[in-house]
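Entry type: protein chain
Record version: 2
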Amino acid sequence: MSGLLTRLGIPRLWGEDPERLWVAMRYSVGPIVRVLTPSVCYGLERIPPEGGAVLAANHLSAIDHPLLGQHFPRPIYFLSKKELLDLPLIGEALEWTGTFSVRRGEADREALRRGRELVRAGKVVGVHLEGTRQRLGHPGVFKGGGLVIALAEGAPVIAAGIESFGWSLRNRRVCVVVWGAPIELRDLPRGRAGVDEALALVGPEIVRLWRQACEAVAAGLPPVLPDGARRAGPIPPGGTTLRPAPGRRAAARSAPARRTAR
């Protein structure tokens, strides 16, 4: 059942279009997040400007969703635990942004179907592969559920390493996101074997990117990382989409991606 604010027609203000809401959020929510979370990202130039993909990241603090949204130039349709979306008002607001739920600990075919539909339509689905926030300060055991969407649709995975451990409203520490080059999974087999191979590719990459994020914090946020990834601030209002140069759309779609070897 729809929440109270939805029944009152609030989503009609943005035409019930999550992507229009994301544009408005760059102006309204973005400045609040920047105050709560001083942050930078690296590797923004690696993000494909268009096309369906799965964004796969680690999860260390409550600020991770807003942090990813701040530093990703496209709307993200987050896959979130059902318990969060069941919360009054909070869950309703998240659904307005395109967030959809998954039942943890079981095969949720509806969540898989929704994720596949979004990726097929050229959207980006965001997942935290551990499935829950980690309490020990480093990435936990990754699960392959979110990668099934990419495998089923032949879509790339955009890996991200987040260093935000210890962030809270009382400890507004500097946080860092490092983006990796898209990882292609289309040559992997379907089924359990394919999921395991995908995890073997994506999991270590997330850990590598997280370590780079930790090193960037320790080094005082250098302008460039050793692998050439450049530092960037939060996406400004109006900067919701990376646009390829005229006549270069095809090149942008195939720009540097890690490919699997069989």
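Comment: The longest helix spans residues 191-218.
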